[in-house]
Amino acid sequence: MFVFAYGSLIWRPGFPHLGARPALLRGYHRRFCIWSRHYRGTPERPGLVLGLDRGGACQGVVFEVAPEAASAVLDYLDARENLLGEQVYHRRELPVRLRDGNGGVVQAVTYVADRRHPAYARPCAVTAAEAIAMAQGSAGSNRDYLLNTLEHLAGFGLRDAGLERIARALGG
After folding, report:
1. What is the percent of the chain where pLDDT is above 90?
2. How far apart are CA 20 and CA 60, in angstroms?
3. pLDDT attached to residue 90
4. Which are the contacts of 99, defined by CB distance < 8 A and separation ≥ 6?
5. Which of 81, 130, 151, 164 is catalytic?
6. Closest CA to 23 of 61, 63, 65
7. pLDDT score of 84
8. Is the pLDDT of residue 141 over 70?
9. DSSP string, 121-172
């Protein structure tokens, strides 16, 4: 089994894996499009977390999972991505192109933002930066979430111009 990571899973997967490789997912892009009232914010001061939204492409990381661990990893990811059973993301299996070696394609499990969910948002970079600058939740500051994601993307030789624009707006 393969898992495509585009946000905090890159730097904190939380599940056993056999390796991680850079990959490209077409048809979706990474975006701060989910209001977070727990992990990266509070009900009084929500933060924003990343989701895959329709259109474009997303560079991320594919983790390979041993067959015997697949069921437990899916249970873990479903609980992590849809906190308290709230279906903010839809689990999908999508084709991703590996960015190392031969550039083969694998089917990978990933989580796509549910545009119908009340937590879904499409803030501009300035609005996103303002929310991210002020928010803190049970998993830490929203700012750290952004900066850790950029740092670990860079560690795989990947960039995200949209996230970099938000980081510049934060002075990061």
Report:
1. 88
2. 10
3. 96
4. 21, 22, 23, 24, 59, 157, 158
5. 81
6. 61
7. 66
8. yes
9. ----HHHHHHHHHH-EETTEEHHHHHHHHHHHHHHTT---HHHHHHHHHHT-
| Structural domain spans, the chain | 2-170
Residues 119/88, Cβ–Cβ less than 8 Å: yes
Token pair recorded at residue 146? 């952004």
Q: Which tokens hold the place of 63?
A: 């983790």
φ/ψ of residue 9, rounded to 5: -60, -25
- Is 64 marked active-site? no
Measure the CA–CA gap between 88 and 109, rounded to whole angstroms.
16
User: In the prediction, which pLDDT does 126 show?
Assistant: 86
Residue 51: both structure tokens together: 């989701």
pTM of the model: 0.94
Per-residue model confidence as pLDDT tens digits over 103-119: 799 999 999 999 999 99
CATH number 3.10.490.10 is the correct assignment for the domain at 2-170: yes
